[in-house]
Every structure is written in structure tokens, then in C-alpha cells.
Amino acid sequence: MDFSKLVEELWKKFFSKVDEKTKGDIIKWFSPKCVIIGTGAHEFYTGLDNFLCAFANEMTERNDIEFNLKNIWCEQMQFDSKTCLVYGKIYVLGESKDKSVLINMDGRFTLIFHMVEGHWEIIHIHYSIPNQEQGDGEYYPKTLLKKVQELQSINDEMRALAQKDGLTGLDNFRTFSNQWEHRSKYGWFFVLDLDHFKQINDTYGHLVGNEVLLYMGKVFRSVIRENDLLCRMGGDEFLIFCSEMKNKSDATEFAQRLINEVRKAGESNLYWTTVSVGAAEVTSGMSIDEALENADKSLYVVKKTKRGGFFAI
Question: For the sheet containing 44-46, what is the strand order?
Fold first, then answer.
């Protein structure tokens, strides 16, 4: 018996407009005890009755879909006088009239025929679609995992870029603001402004200016405490929030340490400047905008009196 030709005809009927007659022409070959496995996780049917229920639902769902069987080939392998295996590939396209459903199935299949009481029955069908993410020579879809890991790495990098200042690597103001929301709202808020920084850019160029900003950020990071917040506000301005700093005396000592460390760093740098620091106390209920405004007022006093110094409201 030419099982390959029979299977080819059955597939053609399956992907045609299935009416009751066509359905009967297909089902008559199935054993009541057949096992059918499809591509979906739910498509695992033991027994013809289970498959017929799913088949009826599928017919309703695909009623509006026009299939086009583009290619099919199959081979048969006779095991004995009562058993034959048919295997092959099938390529099917399809779409609904409103274009809401598009189908592109390049699958492979196996069917097992077995003779029961003098006539042949299909006792098993397995239809699968290859994993397109599994590369040639791979036995597990490592390519997909690699792509996922690459995307995760890109996402992590993009997230870090969104949180950090691109030049200094310090937090940006957005990240600083977000962290502020989760800190206790008492302590001291500092605004740091580099003195005569524009002259460095104008005299030596922006590359030198960038080096100054980068190194200045390292100096500030070396002074702050573990739980303090530090960011580059933009340009030559930096912000620090020291939560739970107790009083003005502690704030003054902290600011002076910043100023001194910047001066020390200048001893070994040809292109350098000093830093002016303004500070304001943060009390319960105060917003970041209020804290920044108050610290800016202090900074204004420093800039108008003696640069490279400190003032606190």
C-alpha cells in the first residue's frame, strides 16, 4: 500500500474547507485508541474522542482562514506486515479574510499505521515545528538564551546610563531625587559649585574641563559617608545630602573637609580650581526643591563674598 500518497491526500484534505464528508474521509483512518501530539502544549490527545472534541473547536476557529499548502513530501518505512511509519515535512501558509490571523507553519510529522482485523488504522501522529532560535549544530536552544542574555545586558547598561551621569559616573539628579524620597527627611543639604570653571574651559579647552569634573567627582566621593547621596546636578554643580547629620557644627566640619580635600588635590594637578559650598538644614516635610532652593541661597552668599568657602543658612 502507498502510505506516502495516502498521507499526502489526508494533509491536503485537512487544510481544505472541511465539511462533514471531508471530516469523515479523514477520521475513518484513525484508531479509536490513537495518540495525537500537536505543536501546542495542550495538543496532546489520547484516544480519538479527545481529538474529535478539539478538532471540532479548531474547525470553528479556522472557519474564516484560507490555507495554502505550499509544499509536502513524505517517505514510508515498512517495519513488518502490520506496521508502517510515514515521516515527512509540510509547509502551510494561511490568513483570515480580515488579515487578523496570519499562519506560516514549516513543520515535520510522523504517522504510524497499524493493521487491525484486516484494515489499516492510524495509531499515532506527531506534528512539530522546529525551534527557529536553535542554531545549526545545536541540540538545545542556546542561541535564544544567548540573545536573551545579550538583551538583558543591554537593558542593564541602558538602565545604568539612565541613572548615572555620563562623564563622572556619579548618580544623576533624577536618581538622586528618587533616592531622596526613600531617605529620612532631616539632615543637611549641600550645593557644590566649582569656582571659575568657565575660565578652565575657555583657556584650556573642554577636554581639560571634563578631566577636572571627573577628578572632582572622585574627590567628593572619597569624602562622603557610606549612606550620603551624591550627584552631579549638571555643568559644574554637584549635590550632597547627608541624612541624619545632627547640627550646623557637623555640617560645617563636613563642608570644610570637602574644601580642604579639593585644595589638596589641586597640589598635584596642573589644571585645577577650588569649590564653593552652600548648605541648608533639611527638616521633616521639606521637599527636595525647598532644600535645593535654601542651599542655593547659601551658595549665593559664598559666591558674593569669598569663593572657595562655605556658608549655611
Answer: 44-46, 30-37, 119-128, 102-116, 83-96, 65-80
CA distances, 173 to each of 114, 184, 268, 282, 297 (Å): 73, 18, 30, 18, 19
List the grid coordinates of 300.
549665593
Unique residue bearing C-alpha cell 495542550? 42
User: Domain locations in the chain?
Assistant: 3-128, 165-312
Separation of alpha carbons 268 and 43, rounded Å: 73
pTM, rounded to two decimals: 0.56
Sorted by sequence, the CB contacts under 8 Å of residue 27 that are 6+ apart come out as 48, 52
Query: From start to end of the chain, where are the E strands?
Result: 30-37, 44-46, 65-80, 83-96, 102-116, 119-128, 187-194, 229-234, 237-243, 275-282, 310-312
Residue range 3-128 in CATH 3.40.50.300: no
> Which residues, in sequence order, are CB contacts of 182 under 8 Å at separation 6+?
none
Contact 88, 7 (CB under 8 A): yes
Rounded to 10 deg, the angle between the 20-27 and 3-14 helix axes is 150
Residue 65 has which C-alpha cell? 482562514
- What value does the mean pLDDT of the chain take? 91
Could you tell me the three cell numbers for 53? 472534541
Beta bridge pairs of residue 104? 93
Q: Using CA of residue 50, residue 52, residue 55, residue 59, what is the dihedral sign?
A: negative
Q: What is the pLDDT of residue 274?
A: 95
Q: What are phi and psi of 100, to 5 degrees?
A: -80, -20
Q: How does DSSP classify residue 206?
A: H
Query: Taking the domain 165-312, which CATH number applies?
Result: 3.30.70.270
Q: Are 223 and 264 in contact (CB under 8 A)?
A: no
Task: State pLDDT tens for residues 133-181.
Answer: 767 776 666 666 677 788 888 888 888 778 899 899 999 999 999 999 8
Nearest alpha carbon to residue 189 among 106, 299, 59? 299
Query: Quick one: DSSP state of residue 167?
Result: T
